[in-house]
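Appendix B. One record, verbatim.
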Amino acid sequence: MLRRLGILIVALSVSLSWAPEAFAQVSDSDSSEYLIKAGFIYNFAKFVEWPATAFAQPDSPIVIGILGTDPFGTLIDQIVQNKKIGARGFVVKRLKWGTDFKELRECKILFVGDSEKAHIGELVQIVKTLPILTVGETPGFAERGGVIRFVLEDNRVRFEVNVEAARQADLTISSRLLTLARIIQQATTDARKPG
């Protein structure tokens, strides 16, 4: 399993690094970058364990919420189409800030788009004790309490993990996934206050 994940990450990284000129063209860059990010989101679901109480039924789907402006288009839908992890399929929902919070609670994975950076602090407070894998790409997302943040390094998609935020959400992240991540410490409000 670790070998398969390693091969997937290498393949995804290589495919992005083979097209550095695409980063000059916004649409090409976005489609390559977000295809890789969508693939990662699908694979994160394989390496995260939710508490049994997170799902109503043994075959309840893994709901992926996209909050804010959707950078994926149909890419993420295509990647998870007809895929299952155990008995669970996938459902992708597009959400807007101010949406009924019941819809947020239904999500098991919540991608927070850059358009929602003004709401990250409030969002983290709303979902921090819910079994939701929050994924974002805004600088500081993991430090502010998001679980996983995508970063681009040398034209490759990498990710950071806030292990404490995962623990607060009652999520267990496989050590195999953690070995591939940069571990981020959550900023504390006490650390920011003058002494």
